[in-house]
């Protein structure tokens, strides 16, 4: 347990100490919120869908958590490069514990980022259906964070250099975000699109967040929860397996 | 303390380590010398559980590291050829993290960290981030960290690479002292013959994956009729140059160097 705790703490310390990174990583969601939220607002309203800010704020929170948690896993590339990874790999501790500490640390950082963005959304004029909905929304933030931090750890275990990082960004993380329904409603989509969207894990996270915060459900809370919990188990399991296969 | 028999490691059709055998006694300082690509680092990686041997047997303090991996890891410390510190944490935090990973109890951990940081003259800088340290200080911190869990064996893979003579000199003085006070067996590789000559009790010379000579510095000189260890080394290994191919980590490192400029 000590090993998990100390590695979790390390991720948190790194986050708190890099103030520039905090600002930068919050900047992007803010841009989406302002540029898209206020930019598309009038069109969205004319289409009879109400306030776009209300609609997209949960999506932007989901995006923040997605990016932050996947990055924490891929940050393993830096640890590999600066050698710290090796220090943990020869320690008399099981790989599972090391993976768990890193992943939970990354997930915790992502959760903090998500909560910060929620606060920014509130400042920008977003209003949840009721304040008691917040704990339920928080549950979805946690699930999204764990699912994608585990995915990130798995990817980070396999990647060997920075080219791979670009590949993951362009062909995995961005599609996951854009195909998740974070920015648009999932009703009346073309069939092919409707299928793809349902294969995207983040779709269920965003739906859960949106349902909890503004009571607009595409699926049911039970389905969203079930899919996310199942994916968390699968990704944690496969992430732990891939991590255990790293040879220094 | 270390017993290696008929150890072999092949990568595809390339044999990096060809059937080597040697013994290192308790409390001994044993140096592994050899040109680049001779198989020194591959051997250390197998001894320290980072690579699985193709065949042959290894015993560390009587344990087979391929079977009793965790127990074996608890018994050795290692300083890698490349740095392995967390630059974003302080010296003390790096030591503490290591202590937790190696199950050193809290009270003992605090005592050992203070003792070792004082020994390696880093105590005053314990709360500075490692990224602010010079190359020599980082090396000292890594070696201090290697001793933290009182290992029976300490592996040092080219620990003095890129250090100035002052740092090298001081570093070996500390290692020798701890070898005497804590009875730690030390297994090292280096390219500096004068260091091996001064520090090591026994020396093995490796080339093209095989051990071609083992003995004390005096024995090696006598065997080749050489004046210095360096001459003996060149007489045994020839004077042609060796090239190592770069692995993905080296490439990654080059890319970051480009970015930093």
List keywords for this structure.
heterodimer, A: 248 residues, mainly alpha, 12 helices, 79% helix, globular, B: 261 residues, alpha/beta, Rossmann fold, six-stranded mixed β-sheet, three-stranded antiparallel β-sheet, 10 helices
Q: How would you summarize this macromolecular structure in one to three sentences?
A:
The complex is a heterodimer of chains A (248) and B (261). With 248 residues, chain A is an all-alpha fold.
Give a description of the structure.
The complex is a heterodimer of chains A (248) and B (261). Chain A is built from 12 helices and no strands. In chain A, α4 packs parallel to α8 (134-158). With 248 residues, chain A is an all-alpha fold. Helices cover 79% and strands 0% of the residues of chain A. Chain A starts with a helix and ends with a helix. Chain B has 261 residues and is α/β, with parallel strands linked by helices. Chain B contains 10 helices and 9 strands. In chain B, β8 (202-207) and β9 form a beta hairpin. In chain B, α5 runs parallel beside α6 (165-181). The termini of chain B are far apart. Chain A binds chain B through residues 2-3, 5-7, 10, 13-14, 17-18, 77, 79-94, 160-162, 247-248, and chain B through 45, 48-51, 70-71, 73-74, 78, 80, 82-89, 93, 96-98, 100-103, 248-249, 251-253, 255-256.
